[in-house]
Recover the amino acids of this structure.
């Protein structure tokens, strides 16, 4: 340990620039290989299972939900329970039970936990003084509502490396009873979507990759029974809108090739624009189902938007008493370029399966002497997908990281989940960072956001600590300077003062 311990940020302390500079690679860097097609298929089933699980959460009112005793529903990461136990004991927290859809996820040993944050900013995560009994008490008080509930899930990785990091599966608000009526919906999805000729059709049927969501008049997510992208492709917008079966399009085999069994579309063979249905299905008895039922008989007082623009019934969307459907465009370029790139905004965090993760250049060749250390966060502004469905995020100019090597979160669902650092406790001690000269640890502000251009070295440096805090995922942070925090993890050791 260094003899002289100083606060971060003063003249004697050296801070390193983090993004977009990546740490140099040591000699034993392991290159992450793209998953094969079978593994991708299995991963799609897992992703579908997580989506189906998240779709179970309906529109609850605080008076309808009673959280079970601690450990039964897994309040906080330390009390995570298996998926079957969660479904059994969650009671009114779940709107429906889609057990049959979750077989693959359960087979991978999925674990679940929830956190809740009241209107005053207190997070209930199973810690002492913030358990389910306290949460039930504040739910009875209007001044603490709405309460935001976030559900997380993890599972055994398909590559046998152990459990994945917890991933947010659903979020919803417990509102006051007189604020529950849904009067407006805003359907969001990527349109037009541009893909390369000869690219896989399946890539245009992935909900997660198309940024599909549904929000209410307050901008909050609306729970659905399912969200589907039609498997049929149409020559015109009107044909797609009027189609009675969204999975049966009017394109010919010459335009979209068929697999060997000649029943499932496989690749886009001809350049041009095609149209695809996007359908949201409401849960029985949910506020979305109520809105759709009322809209069918009397649309006055209710509004529908598409990507923020007012929509017209019959032209921009069609609906029944339990579904609402839209149409989006698929532009197939005449180029057979390997990658399709879209803008994005968020943070990618490297996993912990390897010490380093290889970076790729624009031509998808591995970059020598450049890699990202595990468990580090990096801002990203673009994502690209090839015709086989492989995905990469851009973390610097001309530098990309495989999606399989990171977890992605947008600004609204970053580590702090919009709540910032909580459970701040004044303390005295020293945090020692001892991971090696090639490591840097980013600094965070009290909102849980990475501070651009600020970091501390991992080469056996020591910093005085004035406070500790937690984020919504349960990570511990140490305050080493005014509004500058280091996140705990491998290589970070805290020694409290005597």
């Amino acid at each position: 340990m260094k003899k002289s311990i100083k606060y971060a940020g003063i003249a004697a302390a050296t801070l390193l620039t983090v993004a977009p500079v990546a740490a140099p690679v040591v000699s034993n860097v392991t290159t992450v290989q793209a998953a094969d097609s079978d593994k991708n298929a299995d991963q799609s089933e897992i992703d579908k299972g997580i989506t189906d699980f998240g779709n179970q959460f309906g529109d609850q009112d605080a008076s309808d939900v009673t959280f079970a005793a601690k450990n039964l529903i897994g309040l906080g990461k330390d009390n995570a329970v298996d998926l079957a136990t969660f479904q059994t004991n969650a009671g009114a927290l779940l709107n429906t039970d889609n057990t049959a859809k979750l077989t693959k996820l359960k087979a991978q040993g999925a674990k679940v936990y929830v956190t809740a944050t009241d209107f005053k900013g207190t997070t209930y995560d199973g810690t002492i003084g913030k358990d389910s009994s306290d949460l039930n008490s504040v739910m009875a008080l209007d001044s603490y509502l709405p309460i935001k509930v976030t559900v997380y899930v993890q599972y055994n990785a398909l590559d046998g490396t152990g459990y994945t990091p917890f991933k947010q599966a659903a979020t919803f608000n417990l509102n006051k009873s007189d604020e529950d009526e849904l009067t407006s919906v805003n359907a969001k999805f990527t349109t037009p979507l541009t893909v390369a000729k000869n690219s896989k059709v399946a890539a245009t049927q992935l909900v997660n990759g198309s940024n599909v969501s549904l929000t209410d008049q307050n901008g909050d997510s609306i729970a659905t029974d399912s969200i589907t992208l039609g498997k049929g492709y149409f020559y015109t917008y009107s044909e797609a809108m009027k189609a009675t079966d969204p999975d049966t399009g009017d394109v010919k085999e010459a335009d979209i090739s068929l697999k060997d069994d000649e029943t499932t579309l496989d690749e886009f063979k001809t350049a041009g624009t095609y149209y695809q249905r996007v359908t949201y299905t409401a849960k029985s008895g949910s506020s979305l189902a109520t809105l759709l039922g009322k809209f069918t008989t009397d649309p006055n007082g209710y509004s529908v938007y598409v990507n923020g623009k007012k929509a017209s019934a019959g032209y921009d969307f069609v609906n029944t008493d339990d579904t609402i459907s839209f149409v989006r465009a698929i532009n197939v370029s005449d180029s057979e370029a390997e990658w399709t790139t879209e803008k994005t905004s968020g943070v990618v965090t490297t996993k912990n399966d390897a010490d380093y993760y290889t970076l790729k250049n624009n031509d998808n060749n591995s970059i020598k002497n450049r890699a990202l250390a595990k468990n580090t966060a990096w801002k990203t502004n673009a994502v690209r997908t090839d015709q086989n469905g492989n995905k990469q995020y851009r973390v610097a100019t001309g530098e990309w990281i495989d999606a399989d090597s990171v977890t992605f979160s947008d600004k609204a669902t970053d580590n702090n989940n919009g709540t910032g650092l909580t459970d701040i406790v004044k303390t005295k001690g020293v945090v020692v960072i001892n991971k090696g000269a090639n490591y840097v640890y980013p600094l965070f502000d009290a909102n849980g956001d990475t501070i651009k251009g600020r970091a501390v070295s991992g080469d056996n440096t020591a910093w005085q600590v004035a406070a500790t805090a937690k984020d919504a995922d349960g990570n511990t942070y140490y305050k080493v300077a005014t509004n500058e925090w280091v996140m705990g993890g491998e290589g970070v050791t805290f020694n409290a003062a005597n």
